[in-house]
Structures are given as C-alpha cells and as structure tokens.
Recover the amino acids of this structure.
C-alpha cells in the first residue's frame, strides 16, 4: 500500500514569491492534515480536513496561506507571498477518521525562502 | 490547552545500552499518547500509541512506553539500543474532545555511540 505522497520534496524560492505544496493521502483516508515543522521543533498543525471540509484551520495564517481539498482526496497548500520565516518542513498526514486514529505522515516538503 | 514537554533535547547512549526518553503531557481528559520517530529527511513513523487499557504499551523496533497518569508521563524505553535507532523522537498527545488534533513535543535527538 502506498503511503502519503508529497511533492516537491525540496523548494527554494525568493521572498515574496508564491509556492504550492501537493499531498496525496493514503487511499481511503478521509482525514488529511497539514503540519509545519520548524527547525529543531515538533510539527504544528496548520489545517485539518474531513473529506473536503476544513474543520480546524485556527493555526493557518490566513493572510498568506490557503489550502484546498476539492474532491476530498489530494490537497494543495499555498503560500502567497512567502516570507523568510516560512522556511520550514511542511508535512502532510492522513488518517482513516478522527478520535485517535493513527496519523500517517508523508516525507514532507522542505522549503527555503531566501 | 494540551501540551507536551520533552525535557531532553539531546541524548547520547552507547550501542547496546538501555534507553529512556522522557515525555510529560498536559491534557484535561484521558489522553491519547503517541511516540513517533523521524530519521533525517524522512517523515514521522509511528512507534507506538496508548489509548486505554494496559498502561505498558509495546511498539515496533523493540520499543515500549509506560503511561503513568499520576505523573502525567509517557516515557519511551528500549532495553538495548542499536546504531540504527539514531534519530529524532517525538511524543504527541491528542484526544477525543480535540478531534484528532495532535500536539507534539519539541523532540529528543538520539545519538548512538559505537
């Protein structure tokens, strides 16, 4: 069974440029998560989807970040415009449901903003 | 609000020695507790989880963890460390009344001496 797929794996951009990350969750997993992991820290949740509905986006900086999961399967996270402080690893995870279901993580996208 | 503290940022042990990684959590109800491992450039892999029942939980790769409610702890242990165990370890807490939102600790980086 394929795991969570993310692309690209690495991205280098200049500040003020836009950037997008893509995630394909494990087949059959209704819940999808985007996390940001700063260097030397644990992941922090940005947004959680139940199917195509964003049910928890309280930590998403909505002035520059947006996300979508149009058909309830794959998802895109966008930053526009990027700032230096956005440099981090962006992790996608999925689970079959909520209530303590195990979250399975993708390899992440490492973003460097210059 | 839920929180996780991993007091040790770095730990170095000799190969074959025993290991204990500390984790303390704050949560208002019965928590779901997880340990994940992250190797360089990789996503997070679940080692083990506690939902209920037996407070000593067995995981993959020979790891175990013990839930101690009175101490709000969920320490990870391994009787004999292998060089391949060198990685970063994250403790996380979640629960039913927070959906499936996980809060991660800052991580403990394990180094293994030959």
């Amino acid at each position: 069974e394929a795991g969570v797929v993310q692309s690209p794996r690495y991205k280098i951009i200049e500040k003020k440029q836009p950037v997008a990350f893509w995630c394909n969750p494990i087949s059959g997993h209704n819940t999808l998560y985007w996390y940001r992991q700063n260097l030397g820290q644990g992941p922090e949740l940005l947004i959680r989807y139940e199917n195509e509905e964003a049910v928890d986006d309280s930590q998403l900086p909505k002035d520059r970040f947006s996300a979508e999961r149009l058909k309830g399967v794959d998802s895109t996270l966008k930053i526009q415009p990027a700032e230096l402080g956005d440099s981090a690893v962006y992790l996608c995870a999925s689970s079959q449901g909520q209530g303590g279901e195990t979250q399975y993580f993708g390899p992440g996208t490492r973003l460097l903003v210059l | 609000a839920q929180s996780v503290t991993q007091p040790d940022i770095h730990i170095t042990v000799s190969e074959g020695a025993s290991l204990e990684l500390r984790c303390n959590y704050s949560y208002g109800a019965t928590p779901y507790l997880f340990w994940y491992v992250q190797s360089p450039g990789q996503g997070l892999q679940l080692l083990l989880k506690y939902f209920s029942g037996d407070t000593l939980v067995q995981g993959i790769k020979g790891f175990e963890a013990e839930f101690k409610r009175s101490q709000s702890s969920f320490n990870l242990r391994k009787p004999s460390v292998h060089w391949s165990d060198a990685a970063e370890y994250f403790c996380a807490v979640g629960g039913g009344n927070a959906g499936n939102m996980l809060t991660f600790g800052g991580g403990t980086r394990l180094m293994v001496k030959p």
In short: Chain A has a mean pLDDT of 92. The two ends of chain A are 37 Å apart (CA to CA). Residues 36 and 48 of chain A are 12 Å apart (CA to CA).
